[in-house]
Amino acid sequence: MKSLIVAAAALLFSVTAAGGVQAKPSDDTVAEALARTMDGYVRNRDFNGVVLVARDGQVLLRRGYGTASIEAGMPNTPDNLFRVGSLTKPLTAVLTLKLVEEGRLALDGTLARYLPDQYAGTPAANATIEQLLAHTSGLKDVPGNYTDPWWRTAARQSFTPQDYMQAWIPGELASAPGERRYNNNGYYLLGLIIEAVTGQTYAEALRERVLAPAGMEHSGVFTATLAQSGLAAGYTRASNGRMERPMYIDPSVSYSAAGAYASADDLLRFSQALDDGRLLGPAMRAEMFRARGPDFALGWGLAEWPTASGTKTPIQMHTGSVPGYQTYLIRSEADRGVIIILDNFWQGATVVQLGQDLYDVLQGAEARTPKRMLTELITPIAATGNLEAMDAAWRAAPRDGDQAYDVSEGALNSLGYALKRSDRLPQAIRVFEWNVEANPASANVHDSLGEAYLAAGRRDDARASYARALALDPESASARAALAALAE
């Protein structure tokens, strides 16, 4: 059974209105609430990075938090550069649509037309530029989860774009064309198509048609040999809770899908250049943001979020992730609100929640203080293997007040699966047992505990847990299948 926590890279959000606020709050009031919200995220979530929030062209918050380099003892400042992961996709989308405006590309142009040597005569031949942009090409993609062995083997090698295409982007389909399926390979191919029609490298074409017109002087395409002054180092959390360098992925596998770096100021300039027509004409800009489904356009996620007046406004957003970095760009059309989060401590779930909280504060909500992450309390203790110490920490964890931990069903389930993936099965079982104790009427938690018991070879315990899950939810296909397998 999957964790109840929504993945950081997901672009679907369930949004509730912010407290019935009716009047637009003053800039000073909002700026103070934004600053207090960030203080809460630094205190309770160890936020590490840069945040910029603007409204109607007025910057309300622009600050760095935590460290840019542990090794050099350098703090994060608002001027630091960050790798932005899949925030590269909106940049690539704008560049692609600029070439459509120039007549060099057509939205209905196909892979067979632009990359014939690789794709003519293959099942992927008819995938169009529009489908690549909208993640509806159906192309076979690389693994989406960084825990897959591919990221620790092939992704550590250096490739030319052409070699990478030949090795890892076959002319095969994994789903029906037109079906939405997030696809990094599609955006990688857009970079190759851009090179084919311009005669420039992707980086040169991006600089000429997007970065320079937008005034993004401190942004570009990251490479393994780039010695970029001011680039914040990326970190992840070690099993003992401390910051450490993440696993290595060669930048050549990111390219036009996830290979850019930028500053917060430059991303604000990018958003403003979209608004004032420096990058795309009105018709092409409208085409880019036209919904291709309930929550996506060309290179952007879409939503409608509540405003201070109680209405809803269109939101355009994208997240980004490469090991060590999490990023989030949110654009609100009603008030030209822009939220930019650049995190160099790989805190995906925190970054997504922070984006929502900052938006609500921008609309007049009170400052938000997030609950502390149970993962940060339990994981270092779990690394010692001391189950009694884990129990003691769990019982002592504050449930209320500014120092409260998130002890929800979803938080516990997420922690349990994280420990299971880390081969700490006894510790994972203990966390799932806490969840069953706290949420005995949830079929999902019994199912998760049964899965962990089964992985540990405790078949009788697994059978009992799955039976309880099925009793609580007679429609549970996973519990039914597990019980059938255990009966064999």
Polypeptide structure, described:
Helices cover 42% and strands 14% of the residues. It is built from 19 helices and 13 strands. It has helices spanning 27-45, 88-101, 111-114, 116-119, 129-134, 161-168, 184-198, 202-214, 255-258, 264-276, 282-289, 348-362, 374-382, 387-396, 409-421, 425-438, 443-455, 459-472, 477-487, and strands at residues 49-55, 58-65, 67-69, 74-75, 81-85, 220-221, 236-237, 243-244, 260-263, 301-306, 312-322, 325-332, 337-343. The strands form 4 sheets. Strands 2-1-13-12-11-10 form a 6-stranded antiparallel beta sheet, sandwiched between helices. The protein has a 3-stranded antiparallel beta sheet with strand order 5-9-6. A two-stranded antiparallel sheet has the order 3-4. β7 and β8 (243-244) form a beta hairpin. The protein starts with 26 loop residues before the first helix and ends with a helix. Residues 1-22 have low confidence and may be disordered.
CATH class of the largest domain: Alpha Beta
Uncertain ranges: 1-22
Termini Cα gap: 21 Å
Radius of gyration: 23 Å
Structural class: alpha+beta
Stated plainly, the CATH topology of the largest domain is called Beta-lactamase
Give the biggest beta sheet.
Answer: 6 strands, antiparallel
Number of strands: 13
Biggest sheet: strand arrangement? 2-1-13-12-11-10
How would you summarize the topology of this molecule?
Layout: H1 27-45, E1 49-55, E2 58-65, E3 67-69, E4 74-75, E5 81-85, H2 88-101, H3 111-114, H4 116-119, H5 129-134, H6 161-168, H7 184-198, H8 202-214, E6 220-221, E7 236-237, E8 243-244, H9 255-258, E9 260-263, H10 264-276, H11 282-289, E10 301-306, E11 312-322, E12 325-332, E13 337-343, H12 348-362, H13 374-382, H14 387-396, H15 409-421, H16 425-438, H17 443-455, H18 459-472, H19 477-487
Antiparallel strand pairs: 1-2, 1-13, 3-4, 5-9, 6-9, 7-8, 10-11, 11-12, 12-13
Helix pairs in contact: 1-12, 2-7, 2-8, 6-7, 8-10, 13-14, 13-15, 15-16, 16-17, 17-18, 18-19
